[in-house]
Design goal:
This protein has 56 residues and is of the alpha+beta class. Helix content is 18%, strand content 21%. It is built from two helices and four strands. The strands form two sheets. A two-stranded antiparallel ribbon has the order 1-4. The chain has a two-stranded antiparallel sheet with strand order 2-3.
Length: 56
């Protein structure tokens, strides 16, 4: 199951740096995860200081 970034995102970029497959990119107001690229490893959730990443 892919992960998603919630409204708690502060656009710090730590999740994008922690993604091993490059599924995370900067969106208009926060970072976004491409569900087709996401391998559901959870690396991004572990790096987010705001706890803004959760399973869909």
């Amino acid at each position: 199951m892919a992960y998603k970034i919630t409204d708690a995102c502060i656009s710090c970029g730590s999740c994008a740096e922690g993604c091993p497959v490059g599924a995370i990119s900067q969106g208009d107001t926060s970072y976004v995860i491409d569900p087709d690229t996401c391998i559901s490893c959870g690396s991004c959730a572990g790096t987010c200081p705001m706890g803004a990443i959760e399973e869909e």
